[in-house]
Design a protein that fits this description.
It is a single chain. By secondary structure, the chain is α/β, with parallel strands linked by helices. It folds into three domains: 61 residues; 193 residues, Endonuclease Chain A (Endonuclease, Chain A, 2-Layer Sandwich), CATH 3.30.870.10; 178 residues, Endonuclease Chain A (Endonuclease, Chain A, 2-Layer Sandwich). The protein is 41% helix and 17% strand. The strands form three sheets. The protein has an eight-stranded mixed sheet, with helices on both faces. The protein has a seven-stranded mixed sheet with strand order 1-7-6-5-2-3-4, sandwiched between helices. The protein has a two-stranded parallel ribbon with strand order 10-15. It is globular and about 60 Å long.
Length: 478
């Protein structure tokens, strides 16, 4: 009888925990306006039903995808302002991002050596302020060179602010950053995990947990020198600040990556985004959002735009732009990414583009640094190849993130073509519209593609097929 009562008590408790967890899930989804992919929603519900004791803390830690924000009102582009060549600009503005801003002296870095020279020159040239946001600073020669310059500038009276992701700092083997604050610089961790409290006294891990932000990583990479000044400069792209992204190490060649730097009013958009992220990381009220109302005049076609993506945006901006681009492309789509685990709608748009005669080229490493992503990419690669897309495999690790659509749009920055990059992380891409500069990014792509070999999609064995199917359910965590 006692055992029966104990079993009944256990089942009752188990049911209560399941109900509470489902309520937490529903309330969080409603209040925070979470729009989850059906696959992710089904996976969470199965987790809650079968393992409620594990599902509740897991959901509190990893369940949030979008942060609460006021509704965003975006005016549609009036017909008289539309241009047949301006679909990219109009789409970006319709997604709540700023209108095009002018820039000059665009320098697309040919390799890691040139990228490193531009990075250090930007730091050395700063006279008023340095705002640096990155995912990783390595505990190596490149990371040391960056930290040393930041310290020297802070001692010289330059305002130095470093925004570093809480997960990225652990992946970089805990670089020595205490000397930066001792030199007068400011350091803030973005949504730090529990074991990173050491570096972030201004924002407690409990606060991050209660906000559900412990799974939301700031993957943006940007360096702004002398923000607000006439000579301000932006360094941006996909490179983390570690040796393997630039000149390599004695034991390994450098990764292939893409970055660029420029001057001009476009840097003001980058500065506004940095201010928002800085305020959030410090637990302060966020400043003005990175967006602009539509100007009264027709949208200019000769500038560039920052496209911020992540939990701080109402829409999945980069994802929506890529899906639109796949349907609008007429001749060519060129994509470079280290990880290719796209959501089904984006994959279908790319496959349909290939089927209607658009040349779709996808460049990725033959073997990346994430074996699970390499396994998960099998199904979408086979689907794209069957539709007529061309797969190119780089012999070395390729970390670049680039999309070139015809001669109308080049999108370069930090977002990978996987669920984490398109739906979870705070990401930053820059959209270039000037034909000459779009062609420069296309030339970079062709130079990288020339060193790659064609990928051949082969049918998987039973175990691999089962593994790929399982990973589709885990795509949002890869």
């Amino acid at each position: 009888m006692l055992s029966d009562m104990s079993l009944l008590h256990w089942l009752t408790l188990d049911g209560m925990i399941t109900v509470v967890t489902i309520l937490v899930y529903v309330i969080n989804s409603h209040v925070m306006r979470q729009r989850r992919h059906p696959t992710a929603a089904v996976a969470w519900m199965l987790f809650i039903i079968f393992l409620p004791y594990l599902a509740l803390p897991a959901f509190l830690l990893f369940g949030t995808r979008k942060l609460a924000r006021p509704p965003q009102v975006v005016l549609p582009v009036p017909p008289e302002k539309r241009s047949p060549d301006g679909w990219g600009i109009e789409t970006i503005v319709a997604l709540g991002q700023p209108a095009p801003a002018r820039y000059c002296e665009l320098n697309v870095h040919a390799d890691g050596h040139q990228a490193g020279d531009a990075l250090l020159a930007t730091l050395d040239g700063a006279r008023v302020s340095i705002d640096l946001c990155t995912f990783i600073i390595g505990r190596d020669s490149l990371g040391e060179a960056v930290i040393e310059r930041l310290c020297n500038k802070a001692r010289a009276g330059v305002r130095v602010r470093l925004l570093l992701d809480g997960m990225g700092i652990l992946m970089a083997r805990r670089p020595n950053l205490s000397r930066l604050t001792a030199a007068g610089g400011e350091l803030v961790l973005f949504a730090p995990p529990l074991h990173a409290l050491l570096y972030s006294p201004l924002r407690s891990p409990l606060n991050a947990l209660l906000k559900g932000s412990s799974n939301l990583r700031n993957h943006r990479k940007l360096l702004i020198a002398d923000a607000g000044q006439a000579n301000s400069r932006l360094w941006c792209g996909g490179r983390n600040l570690a040796a393997e992204y630039f000149d390599g190490t004695p034991a390994a060649p450098p990764w292939r990556d893409l970055s660029f730097d420029l001057r001009g009013p476009l840097t003001d958009q980058a500065s506004a985004l940095f201010e928002c992220d800085w305020a959030f990381a410090k637990g302060l009220p966020r400043g003005g959002a990175l967006r602009a109302d539509l100007p009264p005049a027709p949208l200019a076609l000769d500038g560039a735009q920052l496209v911020a993506s992540g939990p701080d945006q109402a829409d999945d901006t980069v994802y929506a732009l890529l899906v639109t681009a796949a349907y609008r492309a007429q001749r060519r789509i060129a994509l470079a990414t280290p990880y290719f685990v796209p959501e089904s709608a984006l994959l279908m748009a790319l496959c349909l583009a290939a089927r209607r005669g658009v040349t779709v080229d996808l460049l990725l490493p033959a073997r990346s640094n994430h074996p699970l992503s390499d396994l998960a990419r099998g199904r979408p690669l086979r689907a794209l190849a069957a539709a007529g897309g061309r797969i190119w495999l780089a012999p070395e690790m390729m970390h670049a993130k680039l999309a070139v659509i015809d001669d109308a749009l080049a999108l370069a920055g930090s977002a990978n073509l996987d669920s984490r990059g398109l739906f979870l992380n705070y990401e930053l891409m820059v959209a270039f519209h000037q034909r000459a500069d779009v062609e420069r990014f296309a030339a970079w792509f062709e130079a990288e593609r020339s060193a790659a070999s064609p990928g051949v999609a082969t049918p998987p064995g039973l175990l691999r097929d089962a593994g790929e199917g399982l990973l589709q359910l885990l795509g949002f965590q890869l």
